[in-house]
Specification:
Length: about 325
Amino acid sequence: MIELEGVPELIDPVMVAAFEGWNDAGDAASGAVAHLDREWKGEVFAALDAEDYYDFQVNRPTVWLDNGVRKITWPTTRLSVVRIGGAKPRDLVLVRGIEPSMRWRSFCNELLGFAHELGVEMVVILGALLGDTPHTRPVPVSGVTSDADLARTMDLEETKYEGPTGIVGVLQEACTHAGVPAVSLWAAVPHYVSQPPNPKATLALLNRLEDLIDIRIPLGELPEDARAWQLGVDQLAAEDSEVAEYVQTLEEARDTADLPEASGDAIAREFERYLRRRDPSAAAEQPGDGSYLRDTSSGLTRPPRRKPDPSGEEPPAPPEPDEPGPAPEA
């Protein structure tokens, strides 16, 4: 049962969701939603019943002490609301949780019930996958949707993926069938350095989210963390000639593929983002006081020595950019 008596009418709300697990390579997607929640001081107003969706032998609860009293935190999905101030205030409904173990259709229907009650105008789902991308280049972020009209009006790709999917793909399709505009943003994480966290991929997702819904996100220490992450991987790669050679191969392939993007729209987008961040009026966009909220209750992997063998002796190639492969082990 959905009860939202403690949450007032929202302003142009957009739901932003991310789920730990298969869809979250390098914890990049869940890290992005956690950053939004932290920077705008979100407070949880609802949580899904863990008993309904999680296998506790897969996602175990944790025990902790609160002033000597033992308490248990159950794995679940929680929702919070943050208000973005400024000349054009709006609200974000943040959904952060773990990919459910069971009853995915009911899970999606419950989230869509919240979206309907809150008047959500669009759902943006963040994901991260492992790919053949070098850590030294900008993180590729693809925006995909199942809605042809949305793809055309928001300059997105209309997904053509076929194959295994995770909760990100299932939730996006549930939104489409319910008539709720939905977009998935996927960041590609280098498969040879998949261990979390990956602040560079998190930063790339947040930059793309800024462009998509036209807001300014306070980045805090994230840019510096991303630079430190890349320097650390540079040092590790330099110590292994095989990895360094493999990274150079990926760089050459990426630079060749991106050559047409080195001018035109790509440069224009970066310049527009630069201007927005220099705009003094943007500094007025501060979080609200949160008083309207209520509470209801790096290592490296050696690269392959040769291309994958179709016979199955080698791992298959990474998936298409609009769906993830398995997320790294915790």
